[in-house]
Write a structure and sequence with these properties.
- The chain has 3 helices and no strands.
- The chain is mostly helical and 101 residues long.
- The radius of gyration is 20 Å and the shape is elongated.
Amino acid sequence: MRNPFDQGSTIANLAQVMGAPGIDWIAPIEPWRPLSDGISFARSDEQLGPDGSPELESGEKVEPEMLWKMRYRVRRQVANVQETEAPDGWLGSYVTRWWNG
């Protein structure tokens, strides 16, 4: 299985972590031109703009939380979860609560 976060080259992969290549790569300082927030990294199938942020067809900026959910394929929360009967015992009720969120 191919790594979805592999950008195709060592330099491109390092740039996702350390920012755009520059003198700040060799100094222990904050990146001058970061390409990510350090939490959410671009996937290889994602279209990025010149500043490293995702390009959307509408031209809108993506909120950080929505970007994180999009990149890591977070499941949508089900609005109407039906209560189910928990099996007998503490373990059964724990598993049911965990499963239903």
